[in-house]
Amino acid sequence: MENILEIKNLNISFKLESQTAKAIHGVSLQLKRAKSLGIVGESGCGKSVTAMSIMKLLPSNAMIESGEILWKGKNIINYPEKDMLQIRGNKIALIPQDPMTSLNPLYTVGEQIHETIMLHQKVSKKEAKEIAIESLKSVKLPEADKSYNDYPHQFSGGMRQRAIIAMALSCNPELIIADEPTTALDVTVQAQILKLIKSIQEERGTSLLLITHDLGIVAETCDNVAVLYAGRIVEYTDTRSIFKNPLHPYTQGLMKSLPAKNSLRLKTIKGQPPAISDNVSGCPFNSRCDQKMEICENISPELISVTENHKVSCLLHKKIM
Questions:
Q1: Number of structural domains, the chain?
Q2: 316 contacts 289 by C-beta, under 8 angstroms
């Protein structure tokens, strides 16, 4: 099965007031057609920066220093904006974190979906409205015909997120990037939205890149998972393997921090991840690692293959090379 998306050795820096700081360090990922990949890690680890680089929506002070972003085999890093407009929203759609700030309060939900369709599809206004209403129906929004004419403030949080998903689906994209799509929702609605995204992805054969800090969400939604820490991939495998046999101490720490049955206490990972402006020596996780060796303070480990489908960046597994 072909890779619809492939990232090769991506390096991204940000120009700060007093220095240039590196945010993404040699990230490489692959996503096959109709499959799902979860990128998981703490806030500030580089998940959203990686996703926005695919859309070419990085802030003005960000620089892609090197690497490739291959969309169906073609490197889009240097694509001009006119070419990206044919891909962004049309072939690659984004479901952002906060639906309230993503919808314009001055326009009806239907008008905003209609505008997206008219921008990317060669259809009449009447056809665009029909597609928009069908998109609202596809995400199981009640009374889709009426909802088309409602404003965002008339929707609940879950309904707004469904509307955003409908907008993302309206042009029938080949890849959906979902950036923390359930962050602002309560637990019950979260489950409904995740089930909806997964069912749509499977029904349409769409590829899914899911950005999250929650391994529980990855377990329910993704085929494969990349664990990101301080802008580096520290573990990369299929979802079953990550839960059955987590190899990196950071991944193990994330697993232990999940709520457990018969326990009222949550285990935490000591300390804080380094800021992008910090000058990190050795393994970036060494100051928080309970399996730290002396060598970890001086050598930054590479991502190596432990098995055919399981990679890890940790000196504990260096002997396997």
A1: 1
A2: no
